[in-house]
């Protein structure tokens, strides 16, 4: 049993971990930058340590400062949350070297899935469907042209070390490939200090559907069903739901089996997510594995009545999982509330929240770290809350979400609430008729 866990993160995920630790009788340590001194995770933890200036490199990515905070507070485990150091194999190894348990997978597991080319090769060996494409990194424009001709346009260039759409370019014809190749490599190098890119066949009219998995150190792996994350803008998710309106019983069974194969192939230990692209014919292809807790884990918790953070901590303590696969009961939808102006190209809107009223009532859950008077700093991700609506059916969940969004009041900064209000009323969204390209034609009024 852990006695004290340091949370190497900030905002709502740090607060989320603190809440579960308190239920488990485990003390917590918050770390914070000078910009976050008034954040709720600092106020609610048992102890708090300032680890640096506002920039992430000086604080939440500063491994020596985080390890020093763990040592001076006698923390025996570190929970990385998501983002920052959550999928950093070096950080996981440093924790192990210092006798502090990293609540997540081993460095080897992180590395095996952190590089997309290596991950794809592992999935092919495991018998998990992958998107047709090259077998390794592209070495030249000429090679890219030859491969594109072989697999057929459209194709997509992707950074091997990437995420969030960085280092990614869609190519429809040969005349576009030279520019796409050079810009993708340059963006990958700038974003990840790794300019390696590879090519895949572009899946048209795709759904982004992911499977939540959990594995223990005894070789047992299970899945907790799917989440549909197709409503996204520039590869950034805005809405997630479970179950997917596109899912069938047979498809869920096949994707669940593939996800278990994927996690078992690396002897995965912790909670994680296998992400798939699903085409209009319900063919699915492995995209990547996230070796951490996801932002959208809440929707899975609500349709399975399962605390994923608690399970993650228990696995880290050596407890075995049940191995039971889950089928969602009811329906849950999550909207990410970002401090962004949806009427101005979703530009960040940091600043002071002057007035805050968060909705409640039956079927509503809110995970957030903000309050009236809180100043949203400009240094980090703009997400300030997640609102989750839960009901017996998808239609009821959408209606509950619409009602709650109408009650949500945040004054002082721009937010994505108006976007979500309009989305919930959109006829195609309500019918479940959407792909990852849905927002390219969605018009805000």
Explain this structure.
By secondary structure, the protein is of the alpha+beta class. It folds into 3 domains: 4-103, 3-Layer(aba) Sandwich (Rossmann fold); 132-201, Dna Ligase, domain 1; 207-440, 2-Layer Sandwich (D-amino Acid Aminotransferase, Chain A, domain 1), CATH 3.30.470.20. The chain contains 14 helices and 22 strands. The chain has helices at residues 11-23, 40-44, 63-72, 89-97, 107-114, 116-126, 141-151, 177-192, 249-265, 297-304, 308-316, 394-407, 417-425, 427-431, and strands spanning 4-7, 27-33, 47-52, 77-79, 101-102, 155-159, 169-171, 197-201, 207-215, 221-233, 236-242, 270-278, 284-290, 331-338, 340-341, 347-348, 351-352, 355-357, 364-368, 375-376, 383-391, 409-411. It has an 8-stranded antiparallel β-sheet with strand order 13-12-9-10-11-14-21-19, sandwiched between helices. It has a 5-stranded parallel β-sheet with strand order 3-2-1-4-5. Strands 7-6-8 form a 3-stranded antiparallel β-sheet, with helices on one face. The protein is globular.
Work out the radius of gyration: 21 Å
Shape descriptor: globular
- Count of runs of 4 or more consecutive helical residues: 14
| CATH class label of the largest domain | Alpha Beta
In the predicted model, the low-confidence regions spanning at least 5 consecutive residues are none
C-alpha termini separation = 53 Å
Structural class, by secondary structure, is alpha+beta
Helical content stands at 25-40%
């Amino acid at each position: 049993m852990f006695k004290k866990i340091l949370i190497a993160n900030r905002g709502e995920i740090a607060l989320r971990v603190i809440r579960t630790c308190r239920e488990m009788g485990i003390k917590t340590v918050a770390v914070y930058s000078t910009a976050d001194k008034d954040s709720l995770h600092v106020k609610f933890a048992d102890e708090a340590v300032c680890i640096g200036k506002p920039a992430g490199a000086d604080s939440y990515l500063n491994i020596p400062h985080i390890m020093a905070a763990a040592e001076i507070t006698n923390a025996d485990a570190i929970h990385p949350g998501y983002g920052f150091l959550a999928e950093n194999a070096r950080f996981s190894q440093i924790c192990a070297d210092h006798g502090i348990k990293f609540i997540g997978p081993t460095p080897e597991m992180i590395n095996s899935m952190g590089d997309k080319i290596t991950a794809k090769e592992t999935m092919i060996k495991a018998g998990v469907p992958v998107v047709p494409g090259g077998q390794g990194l592209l070495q030249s424009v000429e090679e890219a042209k030859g491969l594109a001709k072989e697999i057929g346009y459209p194709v997509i260039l992707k950074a091997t070390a990437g995420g969030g759409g960085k280092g990614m370019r869609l190519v429809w014809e040969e005349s576009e490939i030279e520019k796409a190749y050079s810009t993708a490599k340059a963006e990958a190098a700038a974003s990840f200090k790794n300019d390696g890119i590879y090519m895949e066949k572009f899946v048209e009219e795709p759904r982004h559907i992911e499977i939540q998995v959990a594995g223990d150190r005894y070789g047992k792996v299970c899945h907790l069903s799917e989440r549909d994350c197709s409503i996204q803008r520039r590869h950034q998710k805005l809405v997630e739901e479970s179950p997917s309106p596109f899912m069938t019983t047979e498809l869920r069974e096949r994707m669940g089996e593939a996800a278990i194969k994927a996690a078992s192939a690396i002897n995965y230990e912790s909670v994680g997510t296998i992400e798939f692209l699903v085409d209009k014919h319900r063919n699915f292809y492995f995209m990547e594995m996230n070796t951490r807790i996801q932002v959208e884990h809440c929707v899975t918790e609500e349709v399975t009545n399962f605390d994923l953070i608690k399970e993650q901590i228990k696995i880290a303590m050596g407890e075995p999982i049940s191995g039971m696969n889950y089928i969602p009961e009811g329906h849950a939808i999550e909207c990410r509330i970002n401090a962004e102006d949806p009427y101005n190209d979703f530009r960040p809107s940091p600043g002071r929240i002057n007035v805050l009223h968060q909705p409640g009532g039956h079927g509503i859950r809110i995970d957030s770290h903000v309050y009236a008077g809180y100043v949203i700093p400009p240094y980090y991700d703009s997400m300030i809350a997640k609102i989750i609506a839960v009901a017996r059916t998808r239609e009821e969940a959408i209606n509950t979400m619409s009602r709650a969004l109408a009650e949500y009041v945040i004054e002082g900064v721009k937010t994505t609430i108006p976007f979500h209000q309009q989305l919930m009323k959109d006829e195609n969204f309500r019918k479940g008729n959407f792909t990852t390209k849905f927002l390219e034609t969605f018009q805000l009024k």
